[in-house]
């Protein structure tokens, strides 16, 4: 596989993680550096693990996974997005938790990396070695997610108090996008 194709695949896979990082970057105000690295690492690691799982599974389970992977991603993103909108509506600003619980971060990482599982399956079908692609995918996802978190704060300041609701809507839209891409 040529490097240009690999970069395009890596950037494409990193887009959802970057959008989620931007959304959370806009609403997290405390310990920003810690959270930026936490998000980037989690998304980057999942984007490495999922293609490896897909590649290892090869063609034996591809039909099984393809039938519902988009529904899992859709459900997780809808759930987390609705939860963010609800919390933004009922919790007073002073009582918001600046931290994202580990289980929420892991669900987001899983939801945004399901496409990488399918890419790993396609690599297996094409007899592509998995080492170089997953390293590139992980590095690109880490870098884009980190940048997205930083950019999110700048974009978030434009929306002030409604940013957490907007972030929830963004997650829901990403979930709908994933569902539409896989069902059409």
What does this structure look like?
There is one protein chain. This protein is 83% helix and 0% strand. It is mainly alpha-helical and 184 residues long. It has one domain. The model has no long low-confidence stretch (mean pLDDT 83).
Features of this protein?
mainly alpha, 7 helices, 184 residues
Write the layout of secondary structure elements.
Elements: H1 3-27, H2 32-57, H3 62-66, H4 69-90, H5 102-125, H6 131-159, H7 163-183
Helix pairs in contact: 1-2, 1-5, 1-6, 1-7, 2-5, 2-6, 4-5, 4-7
What does the radius of gyration come to? 17 Å
Alpha carbon gap, first and last residue: 27 Å
Query: What's the overall geometry?
Result: globular
Topology pattern, helix = H, strand = E: HHHHHHH
Give a short overview.
With 184 residues, this protein is an all-alpha fold. The protein has one domain.
